Amino acid sequence: MNQTTTYSMKRLKIKEILKGELIGQQVVVKGWVRTKRGSKNVNFIALNDGSTIHNLQVVADVEKLGEELLKDINTSAALGITGELVASQGSGQSVELNATEIIIYGKSDPDKYPIQPKKHSLEFLRENAHLRFRTATFSAVFRIRHAMAFAIHNYFNSKGFVYLHTPIVTGSDAEGAGQMFRVTTLDAKNPPLLEDGSIDYSQDFFGKPTNLTVSGQLEGELGATALGEIYTFGPTFRAENSNTARHLAEFWMIEPEMAFYELQDNMDLAEDFLKSLIKYALDNCMDDLEFLSKRLQEEEKNKPMDERSMELVEKLRFVLENDFIRLPYTEAIEILRNSNHYKKNKFQYPVDWGTDLQSEHERYLVEKHFKKPVILINYPKDIKAFYMKQNADGKTVAAMDVLFPGIGEIIGGSQREEDLDKLVTRMDEMGVPAHEMEWYLDTRRFGTVPHAGFGLGFERLLLFVTGMGNIRDVIAFPRTPKNAEF
Amino acid sequence: MNQTTTYSMKRLKIKEILKGELIGQQVVVKGWVRTKRGSKNVNFIALNDGSTIHNLQVVADVEKLGEELLKDINTSAALGITGELVASQGSGQSVELNATEIIIYGKSDPDKYPIQPKKHSLEFLRENAHLRFRTATFSAVFRIRHAMAFAIHNYFNSKGFVYLHTPIVTGSDAEGAGQMFRVTTLDAKNPPLLEDGSIDYSQDFFGKPTNLTVSGQLEGELGATALGEIYTFGPTFRAENSNTARHLAEFWMIEPEMAFYELQDNMDLAEDFLKSLIKYALDNCMDDLEFLSKRLQEEEKNKPMDERSMELVEKLRFVLENDFIRLPYTEAIEILRNSNHYKKNKFQYPVDWGTDLQSEHERYLVEKHFKKPVILINYPKDIKAFYMKQNADGKTVAAMDVLFPGIGEIIGGSQREEDLDKLVTRMDEMGVPAHEMEWYLDTRRFGTVPHAGFGLGFERLLLFVTGMGNIRDVIAFPRTPKNAEF
């Protein structure tokens, strides 16, 4: 090919061009065609390069550029275009590009390309997850996913937290619960056996049975009790056979863990953290949020008014602008049992002290009763994990769940039990094998400190921020029962 | 306990205190004891809270604070201390703390605590990886690991790259090579079988055989050819039975992938990226780097002069301040064969066109011949992966390896083959099952573009930046053959 301007000049991103400051200049853009329309004399090409939800309108003179070339330009074709930026005549955009040269890097046969310029169902796009990045909805979702990941790192870095990579393959089960994936290199059909007929795991790669991690918390505590404040941000796994819009077998978690923090400090951090993420989204992703807000309103327009979600940007501001209510579990039970909702038998699940709250209860507290985000604390010890700090009442632990509108629990955490004897007693009661976790107990043996932490499911956060309804639509390549495509 | 000042006041981090701006003020610090020494009348406690390599010297008057209390203060005990900051009399520190109150959060029995205030071998500390965060060396390493991770996210974010989480569990093998870990929920001893006696993977969790990813590149290409520029930063796995100082079974990789980039752009990005990371370390981690530099010099003092490493900070500046040499593989072979080193048979491995260069060759080019970092390009196609762009000569591909002093290859990458027919032909030649990768080929079918990318092994970078010699010492909980502790 010739070294034309389009090849030799550095491309500008459409996000930059649409700021409208370059009118009159010659530029090169490169991207993929969203749509093409036009008449015999002039074609209008909507070009997108992934840098923004907005397309750049390219005006292509048929006579000047040639009919032959233009007829090969279809949805998803890849183009390099040189032209002059001019003020736009049409509405909705400030600037358009008068093309002087168009290079087709790659054609896209409209009879074969699966994603046409029409509305596809989210299910269809999920099956074509390798191409859905090219749609407006999913490019917005994945830009926001990026922005939230960056905001998380930025937040913790600015506060002096150390990012700790806890192990993915592990020989221990952090919570003594949860179905796990086995990681192995043993022969699948004829594994080596010991004399008693059991599997000889000493021959497996790691010399013992290993699984994919369900949480980095316990290892995180090892870091926090030396480095002060740490956080994890990595993949975690659950081999639960749950085919719902809220479950993934592989998902990403953020787990901060802090020495010298008590429950109050933990709550303060969680509230400040979530608000800073929401603020980052509002400050940096408004174009994408507005697009997703319209998408959500469109999706919900056939629902009855009282079943529709809060408008997306309004919902984000709701979290940002309200102090989170902080409420003991025991008081929450009283509020729920005294509610008209309860008296009229409108809750599906029972409300009894000692049972876990269901999503309907959490949402009632947030959306109906307080009309604010809520942090519930001091849960009954028997519905929480062994490592949570035992309160003086002998019945509750210093747990905290942060509840959000629409979604219910978005963060779960606790102060940790720092007393060795109390911890070991509780492990024994709950059947957690303390003898396999001497390394964990060493934090309580040598220089133990009050400490606390919490976990945020990254995809749970993204459902909230993007307004998407299915968790498979906020992770690039979802892993679910019977599905590990791409 | 009483609500003393130490409990009620917010703690200050030692990193802040050592700036020396708070002399005369009353402060609260919390951390772990590194050492305690002193006389009958006064004790000196070196306290560290993980925020910095430096300890705060705490002066404790025995009469005022009580002998009973002070005798329980041993290495690794956790303390909360209130006191007044005063200008230090001693050398090496600007400020010290006159303690008025000391609370022991957790004692540490000196007869049982494994890590004493003396020099331990790195092997011993590896076996106690849960406690090695409390040593100066490892706190420095993990603070630098954090800083480098943040610098990576910050770099790509500032350039408009999208952070993409490619899948950890995968049904495909990216490079058609490498030993992989199987991920399964099937019964390990009695897996379900089909009539022909083979395993019925339809009953496995994902309905087919699945493995831990060896690279996110192929999925990264799907993102880049829609979003423009993406990067991954996640764990990758190799089930290689290699017990060396350079191999991990679980490690973290960074893989940027960029649409509309050719090899030249790829090299420009890699050089700028690495330099920005090194600059970030020099700008933000100098205290830790100086400590690790001394550690390295100490470790190497018994080596002959010509086997010692370049001084750590000097080595980082060497990379920062030199333009990287860009050299075709074919010319590198000529340089090596014309060298006196070669003529005197000092290379252990042969130097023949068509074979891969060994570390000794790479280091010769960087350290002896050019005395600059080197990017080798255009490797013989038969020693590189199927997806690399085929050069016009029919013999080489547009690969690039970035070579660093001491370490050899730190980055490997290439422009990708964007032509569908050429790619499929090469896959057939190399036995890569194209029919299982239709999703990958769709990027070449619909709007294909020139694109390129590279991979940086995060721990490889950290070996370079920290000067540590064993890769198990730059990841918190190393996974290696027969080892998945913690």
TrEMBL record, chains A, B:
Signal peptide: none annotated. It catalyses: tRNA(Asn) + L-asparagine + ATP = L-asparaginyl-tRNA(Asn) + AMP + diphosphate + H(+). GO terms for biological process: asparaginyl-tRNA aminoacylation. GO terms for molecular function: asparagine-tRNA ligase activity; ATP binding; nucleic acid binding. Its EC number is 6.1.1.22. Keywords: Aminoacyl-tRNA synthetase, ATP-binding, Cytoplasm, Ligase, Nucleotide-binding, Protein biosynthesis. Its main location: cytoplasm. GO terms for cellular component: cytoplasm. Pfam families: tRNA-synt_2 (PF00152), tRNA_anti-codon (PF01336). The keyword DNA-binding does not apply. It is found in: Cytoplasm. Belongs to the class-II aminoacyl-tRNA synthetase family. Homodimer. This is Asparagine--tRNA ligase. It comes from Aquipluma nitroreducens.
